[in-house]
Amino acid sequence: MSSRVCENCAREDDDLGSVHRVYVVPESWDTPGSATTLDEVELWCFSCRSQYPHEEAEAVEGTDEA
Ligand SMILES: [Zn+2]
Questions:
Q1: What is the pLDDT along the chain (66 residues), one digit of tens a residue?
Q2: How far is the CA of 16 from the centre of ligand 1 (A)?
Q3: Which of 3, 33, 42, 50 could lock 27 by a disulfide, CB 3.0 to 4.6 Å apart?
Q4: pTM of the full predicted structure?
Q5: Ligand 1 mean position, distance from CA 65 (Å)
Q6: What is the DSSP letter of 58?
């Protein structure tokens, strides 16, 4: 077993969560603000999840049983 590392800050953390990174574009003089959610799932630590925009990723465990 090796420690898992946050894919955002590269810090070892046991409390990693699956998220989709969200890129937020601030509104400026010539463009409206927008946010882009990436399809890629990343593992983020609690600290990053509390500080950076993201969407919780669906847990994918290889089954779709309800
Ligand atoms: Zn982190």
A1: 567 999 999 999 999 999 999 999 999 999 999 999 999 999 999 999 999 999 999 866 666 665
A2: 8
A3: 33
A4: 0.75
A5: 31
A6: P
